[in-house]
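debug: dumping io for the single-chain case to check the tokenizer round-trip. Nothing else runs in this session.
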Amino acid sequence: MRYAMLAMTIAVGTLCAQTMEQATAGRAIYMAECSGCHATDLGGNEAPQLAGSNFRSAWSTRTARELVSYIQTSMPPGDPGSLGEQNSLNLAAFILAANGAPLGQALNASSAFVIRSVATGRPTIALQANGQASQSATPASSGLKGLTVSGEVKNYVPVTDAMLRNPDPGDWLMIRRNYQAWSYSPLAEINTSNVKQLQLVWEWAMNESAGANEPTPIVHNGTIFLANTANIVQALDARTGELIWENRIGPELSNGQGAIRSLALYQDKVYIATTDVRLVALNARTGKVEWETRIADPAKGYGNTSGPLVIQGKVLQGMGGCDRYKDTGCFISAYDAQTGKQLWKFETVAREGTPGGDTWGKLPNLLRAGGDTWITGSYDPVLDLTYWGVAQAKPWMRAIRGTNDKALYTASTLALRPENGSLAWYFQHVPGESLDLDTVYERVLVDSAGQSLVFTIGKDGILWKLDRKTGKFLDYKETVFQNVFDSIDKRTGAVHYRNDIVEQEAEKWVDACPSTEGGHNWQAMSYHQPSNQLIIPLSQTCMQMYGRKTDYKEGSGGTSANRRFFEMPGTGGKVGKLAAYDVNTMKETWKIEQRAPFLTAVLSTAGGVAFVGDLNRVFRAVDVKTGAVLWQTRLATSVQGFPVSFRVGGRQYIAVTSGLGGGSPRQVPAVVAADVHHPANGNALYVFALPEK
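debug: decoded output
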């Protein structure tokens, strides 16, 4: 990335810790290599805070030389030592300046001053290159913003409620295609007999940035609406790949992973939930902004990753970035599709004096963190209920956050009434979840054997089967090896942690399988209706977790844990697993295991084929009945995102993205499967089809 000259102030002090040139160079390295885990404002995400009281508490008595050495020998986790001495020096210089160290004298590998002697807590350098520490800053690297390519979708047809309830077989109108979150296409032109003839029709290079590229191509009446990193939305001709319009909404930098997993269509608008927590409505024909609404304040760490869900004229949106201590909590909210006016919100962390509030003990609202809803929900039009997963409480470990009870509504499935956001029922999968093995992911709605069901699976690898009318527990299945629960009640679904997890202490390591990679993560399962199977991408790694002591004050908190990763016992180093499960019996019907983890959602089709991509750049088609590989190809870089199928002019297409960036699904394999290589660029959209007749 290219960065403009920074605005800075010189702190008063007797010791100058680094030069402006070092800190500026270090900031560029940080944004490219570190911001995905530590956040662009150094506030922490999956990794520790690097600016503020928690950093100073951990490093105040240590020397600058130790900081440089730690960075040079340990960072980044997937390739320690790759930064080299000069880059490590520059990165340390930026971190010190972000914590108040004065600028002036050059930092070197022998600098022995104690960090508390210079870290005043008042940054002496802007955290972002345009002089803004705020998340809402306009990107300085590209210089482009707004409607950068003008055009018009000539054949656009407004999307109605009826279309969303019963989508055209040739369209893909929302994340996972239908309200029920099946990730299944009813198209059957491509089948088990002819899929081996699949060939590339066209490809489209996507934006390259520090953000994670994990999108769902949204397809309607021959047009693809595509979200790129850095909050860029494009409309493409689905048959040819020709660009119709492009809107660079911005910002380019964002806290967290910077992923935009989907867009939403309704009437004449396309909706994007930006990574800096705005909801923006664009004219679907032209790409022009119709309205925008601020959901929450990004300066408090809030962010978005998954797209909105439109239900009966309301745009529903979850949120992420809820790990820091602040006076406001996390929530699911709904907005008028025509105006952007907020209509309701549901607090996912029970506040003091509200139902469930006592399950947080005596913690004040300021210290009740977590409850993110960073995966888009699903919807049952018959029951008129929308289903959302809620992530864990924060910090990750109960010994650090100070809770011994359920901490509602974290680690739960919520059934909400979309009319007003009221709670119909909830089921808490893991009360007081304590190892970042949460169950926030897709809720798949299935009718089978006379039952109305909702399925979900989380990082612990437990596949849950609930009654979606009442939330009653029905069954579960362990899909990968787990050792965190020593019992799961087959009648109630109640889980019990191993005693050493229950009795955990701060700053002591705890062993756990799976790791925070999962089990299962954001890569969605598919419900293949003809065979009544769930086809699920899984991962097989383990970890140790260590809870860091944390200041109990505003802006602190975070995930507050260190991790070590290792291979899962009994897997022979096969990190990736793809497996199918019978909906009625919950039995595993087939599986594929391999070294490289699967990094896409699964797409299954009426042609009896399921598609999935992996870290090793392989995109493949398998037989849904047996798991046998029927076709595969290798793309430019790791295959990542949500594959879709659509039809234009009577021809069926398969589309998938390649991409980089992301949280534990990328970071853990970088440590335990470092032998799986891929280029460090290559974000793109690929479209395949059978040869034309």
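debug: round-trip ok. Residues 84-98 form the longest helix (15 residues).
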